[in-house]
Amino acid sequence: MSNDVYVVGTDMIKFGRFPERSVPELGAQAALMALDDCGLTIHDMQALYSGNLFEASAGVGQRILREIGQTGIPVVNTANACATGATAFREGWMAIKAGIYDVVLCVGSEQMGSGLLGGGGGSKGIPTEGLLGSGTMPSVFAHVGLEHTRQYGTTFEQFAKVSVKNHHHSTLNPKAMYQKETPLEEVMGAEMISYPNTKLMCSVNVDGSAAAVLCSEKKARELGLMGRAVKVRASALTSDPYTPRNIAMMDFNAVTRLAAKTAYEMAGLGPDEVDLIELHDCFATAELVHYENLGLCKDGEAGRLIDTGETQLGGRIPVNVSGGLLSKGHPLGATGIANIYEVTTHLRGEAGNRQVDGARIGLTHVVGAGSACAVHILEKA
Amino acid sequence: MSAAGVKPAPTTKGAVPFLKVPKEGEPYLAGSKCGKCGEVAVGTRETCGRCGARQGVEPVKLASTGKLYNFTVVHRNFPGVPVPFISAIVDVDGGGTLKGNLLGVDPDPAKIKFDMPVNIVIRPVPQKDKDGNSYLAYFFEPRN
């Protein structure tokens, strides 16, 4: 018997705004849905891995168990910027891979306020936001996009097309925050937040949760769960390697390239064999650079890739058919596991109107400021 | 000996730790240079972030000229932060990279050129902290 690890149950709540509910309540809902998806209960789980960023010191995992059953299992709470949920998932994967457990629950949950994320300056002295440039996320990712423009001449219109595509995809996803077409003129004409990112090129702040049940092969067979099981072919996590501009200008490229390389090597396959991708489109500018970082095209060809429609549903390599962070929404701690849910659903052939035909292998990617990047490669068992 | 509860007189400080304001002489931006790999980084450091050398990392003053590597025009920000402004990334001549505000250019992407040479100037800013301390910040200006 192999020591492979499988996703046997997964689900996510419809992303939205739930100010009247608590983070553990949101997490509990997704946890129960994922357990129901594989017909197991919390009493079958040997450990819980919980991802949440904004209440990182508040025992979210333990509070989820108070909602769904305090069985006394170990709880690990993770916080790792936007890679928080993926890190929780990876911790669960590692524990089974190491032979410690046979079946664990991974939950990501987050409640977001509204408004801008990020900004410069600490608690000492005077605020530096707006005085020494901008540390808000739309600006940080505007710099990322304009670096591509500097190198390859990528245009405002090409960046905007990413939003048109992902908003279109979300019209096929009932669990996305928005189901709304946004024509190119509307995206380009929306309020400019930080050039070239307009309001419709920024991810949506939403509340949300997603969960996955991970299982060893032995246990999955024992439980009769291999029919809809999805194998975790690779799990990679990186921090930003040193690059000269790294501190002034966060480098989301090097950290992603390192994670992608590690994951492809672990899976023993290349980007050409991947059938669909959920990547970190926190801003429209980010999606284009990650086409190259994940090896979907050669360096400098990302603009062409969006122009030719290759990353649309029906294209050569569909990207963010869920609607992505731009339209499905981005609850930081939940995002990594929501991506796993999306890809798993396609590999199972259960994605309905947005199904990527014949999907066999899928890749998920998240990258968080600071920086942390997680890449997972999944395969239908 | 100072009595308890007596605040020290307000002074002038740098808006970031690597903007040094010496008692005598001109304010400057502090960097460090690794004696092993030669990397120049912004700020004072004991260890080289690039090669990990623990010895031979020496303090240096960063140059006051550089080139525009990257920018964005910021139109929406937190309440109280004046917009629009240009957030710029500048490669300092001789090493180091800074993020700061580019002044003296219209906040219009069409008017901002990659690689344009800039001066790095240090100036007082109107903001004070709650103890009444004044601050200096650095800015970029086009160099003709």
Summary?
The complex is a heterodimer of chains A (381) and B (144). With 381 residues, chain A is an alpha/beta fold. Chain A has helices at residues 23-38, 60-68, 84-97, 137-152, 156-170, 184-189, 217-222, 252-267, 284-293, 302-307, 324-327, 332-347, and strands spanning 5-12, 48-51, 75-78, 103-110, 192-194, 197-198, 208-216, 230-239, 276-278, 361-368, 372-380.
Per-chain topology:
The complex is a heterodimer of chains A (381) and B (144).
Chain A (H helix, E strand, L loop, with lengths): L4 E8 L10 H16 L9 E4 L8 H9 L6 E4 L5 H14 L5 E8 L26 H16 L3 H15 L13 H6 L2 E3 L2 E2 L9 E9 H6 L7 E10 L12 H16 L8 E3 L5 H10 L8 H6 L16 H4 L4 H16 L13 E8 L3 E9 L1
Parallel strand pairs in A: 2-3, 2-4, 9-10
Antiparallel strand pairs in A: 1-7, 1-8, 4-7, 5-6, 8-11, 10-11
Helix pairs in contact in A: 1-2, 3-12, 4-9, 5-9
Chain B lengths: L11 E3 L4 E2 L7 E7 L5 E3 L14 E5 L3 E10 L10 E8 L4 E6 L14 E12 L5 E9 L2
Parallel strand pairs in B: 1-10
Antiparallel strand pairs in B: 2-3, 3-4, 3-5, 6-7, 6-9, 7-8, 9-10
Annotation keywords:
heterodimer, A: about 375 residues, alpha/beta, 9-stranded mixed beta sheet, two-stranded antiparallel sheet, about 35% helix, B: about 140 residues, mainly beta, 6-stranded mixed beta sheet, 4-stranded antiparallel beta sheet, about 45% strand, flat
| Approximate shape of chain B | flat
Low-pLDDT windows of residues of chain B:
none
Give the end-to-end Cα distance of chain B, rounded to a whole number of Å. 52 Å
| Percentage of residues in helical conformation of chain A | 25-40%
- Percentage of residues in DSSP E strands of chain A: 15-25%
Range of strand content of chain B: over 45%
* Largest sheet properties of chain B: 6 strands, mixed
